[in-house]
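chain below, 114 aa
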Amino acid sequence: QLQASGGGLVQPGGSLRLSCAASRSIFSFNNMGWYRQAPGKQRELVATITRGGVTNYADSVKGRFTISGDNAKKTVYLQMNSLKPGDTAVYYCYAVSMGGDDHWGQGTQVTVSS
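prediction:
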């Protein structure tokens, strides 16, 4: 199971850190990451991290967002800097198990507005 947290309201240019806490070692997953869905838009991939620590980002967030993992805390983080109104969305964490099963956390709302 995955538990997402850390969303909120922030002004443009501000920062937030999202957390995705897993019920077991994050190394038990092939990869973990974050999707987001804005009103009226399709869900889009934001960032991923593999068991080996390889990261990948959507072009729209490169240089602003950083995904990382802490296995001791069984948590994956998404550090979001220089936030823009276009980043407003519900953010979902997900994980793919070694067997190929998808796991999803509940969404956390991020609102970027002045």
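The radius of gyration is 13 Å. DSSP finds no helices and eleven strands in the chain.
thats it, cya
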